[in-house]
Amino acid sequence: MADNTITCRLVTPSQELLNEQVVYASVPAWDGLIGFQHGGSPLVSRLGLGKLRLDFPASSGSGSRLYYVEDGFVEMGHNELVILAERAIPAEELIESDAKAELAEAEARVIPEDAPNKLEAVEQLTRAKERARLKLSMAQNSKAAGV
Q1: N or C: which end of the chain has fewer CB atoms below 10 A?
Q2: How confident is the model at residue 2 (pLDDT cuts 50, 70, 90)?
């Protein structure tokens, strides 16, 4: 292992998506982005909804990779970063037309005035729109970058 890298694992309930050396990771925590690199302090945090960016060593020729991630936990310790995500999708696998359809469906949803737990329903709808917008943005950017 190179002196300036950390081991990064990205795991969902159904599979391990990644187990590689990275020089930097930008992780969307529930309260903002957190950056991780070699020699970082131990930390455990709740994972939020957002764009995960992993930067690989120049010697690997891999550059950076982006993932859509949602909910879970992140743990850093002893130069090992473990990201346990409820959902994680490589940016290049996001399909623009699917994201547009998901956003249209979320925007078309209406919450009835007499809905029980109306506040919860509003929060769920807002979250569905945020997910769809992020997927759409990442799909468009990945397509534009030729990924």
Answers
A1: N
A2: very low
The answer to whether 67 and 54 are in contact (CB under 8 A) is yes
Residue 145, pLDDT score: 64
Phi, psi of 134 (to 5 degrees): -65, -45
Check residue 3 and give its pLDDT.
79
User: Within this chain, do residues 140 and 103 fall inside the same structural domain, yes or no?
Assistant: yes
In a domain, 30, yes or no: yes
Q: What's the rounded Cα separation, in Å, for the pair 107 and 102?
A: 9
Q: Is the pLDDT of residue 87 over 90?
A: yes
User: How many other C-beta atoms can be found within 10 angstroms of the C-beta atom of residue 44?
Assistant: 10
If one counts every other C-beta atom within 10 angstroms of the C-beta of residue 103, the result is 18
Whether 64 and 116 map to the same domain: the answer is no
Give the pLDDT of residue 1.
Answer: 44
138 and 121 part of one domain: yes
